[in-house]
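Write out this protein's structure.
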Amino acid sequence: MQHLEEQIAHLTRTVDEMSAIVAQQQSDIAILQHRVQMLMEREAQRDSDGGGSVVFGDERPPHY
């Protein structure tokens, strides 16, 4: 009987630890989603302002 009580206590502690980890991950994901949204909005604004041009490889910009 004592063995079962020890197992239950161990499993309860494990579930509590995992719950705390999942709660932290949920918070981290929310923060990251907010940051990604901000970056997407900033990039969209940059594109609409005409400053989003990128030069690839040997491609020369039009003013050369």
